[in-house]
Amino acid sequence: MARAELPVTGQPPLERSDAARNRRKILDAAARLVVEQGPEAVTMNAVAHAAGMGVGTVYRRFGDVSQLLFALLDEGERRFQEAFLTGPPPLGPGAPPADRLRAFLHAVADRIVEQRTIMSAAEVASPRARYHSGAYLTMHTHVSVLLQEINPGSDPAVLAHLLLAPFAPSLFEHLMSEREATPEEIKAAIDSLLALQPGGTRPGCGRG
């Protein structure tokens, strides 16, 4: 399967202009709350008040706080997906699958480091929501395809879940805040984890 065929997720459906304006107002209000008070201040009531609209409208648009917080991450997520689906190698097409997998997991780590405050809040609001989000499903499919190319005898769907499991914002928060691990140390550990895959697959590129 060509990775370019995977959908870029997280894009809102086509909307009427008034619905699009309401969505934008809600997201802008939530973003202001994050900047001014931190992600723990983001509640449906607080966002509705900041946006100047009824809380029912906020619930109809986003369902719960976790969906609202994930929506705040969507713009960056779309850029990230475009990079690994159609961008230059080794993250994008054109490099050996093992090198692409390493580059992808390093890029996921970078993204969590940069966005872990909001990601952690979304994880706390709904711990299992991650596995049903379009962003995770696209990442899982991408990793599954690479693993199938690297090791055709494996169960790529299960292995992809296991490889992505450590990329939880709460774990990164623990590693960086409590264990004082640096992003570079985390990436070095990712490389060691990749070397433990079935068949002893080791990416061919050097550490960056």
How much of the sequence lies in strands comes to: under 5%
CATH first level of the largest domain: Mainly Alpha
| Largest sheet properties | none
In the CATH scheme, what's the topology name of the largest domain? Tetracycline Repressor, domain 2
Helical content (DSSP H or I, runs of 4+) = 55-70%
Label the overall shape. Answer: globular
Number of strands: 0
Q: Which structural class do the helices and strands define?
A: mainly alpha
Distance between the termini: 28 Å
Protein name: TetR/AcrR family transcriptional regulator
DNA-binding region: 43-62
Domain HTH tetR-type: 20-80
Keywords: DNA-binding
Task: Note down, in words, how this protein is organized.
This is TetR/AcrR family transcriptional regulator. Keywords: DNA-binding. It comes from Dactylosporangium fulvum. With 208 residues, the chain is mostly helical. The protein folds into two domains: 17-63, Homeodomain-like (Arc Repressor Mutant, subunit A); 73-198, Tetracycline Repressor, domain 2 (Orthogonal Bundle). The protein has helices spanning 17-37, 44-51, 55-62, 65-72, 74-86, 97-125, 134-150, 156-164, 169-178, 183-195. The two termini are 28 Å apart. Residues 1-7 and 201-208 have low confidence and may be disordered.
